[in-house]
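User: Teach me something about this protein's shape.
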Amino acid sequence: MENLLKDIEKVLFNHDKIVEVSKRVAREITRDYKNSQKEPVLLCTLKGALPFMAELIKHIDIHIVMDFIDVASYHGGTTSTGSIILRKDVTMDLKGRDIIIVEDIVDTGRTLKHLISYLKQREVNSIACASLINKPSARKVEVEPEYFGIESPNEFLVGFGLDYDEKYRNLPYIGVLKPAIYEVTK
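Assistant: First, the predicted structure itself:
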């Protein structure tokens, strides 16, 4: 990944740290659901949460079901537009199910709040969120993930699913993108 490293100002969270926090979040989910009859549906928000979801499910020690939903709010920029677009809906009936939304990052909170409202219309039993990154300093609406791996400073992050204009998702770490990269395209 040396070719892409030149675009990164600093690496905040290396791969080992991401695996460590994914295991912790998985233990918390296992703890909360293991003595219940609930079989949670892990609902991965595409595309960003896919690497976290892949790491997370390897460490959850209960039965789970998975589905995917694709929503967008950045539309190629570095800040949320506030406009949430549903690109791909879930494929299963969620009525009466216990949902854990798997997010890459909760920053403004708008996407998560929108998803919670959308899923409530599906008559789900419960909704929780597991996010790799929590960025409360960027919050615009009141919403918090029940499970999160890392609290992040308010910087523009890429890597391990997080992108800028669909790029950098494949980095095995999370870093701060050099402003010169996205200021050139403004």
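Now, about its shape. The first strand starts at residue 8 and ends at 13. DSSP finds five helices and nine strands in the chain. If you'd like, I can walk through any region in more detail.
User: That's plenty for now, thanks!
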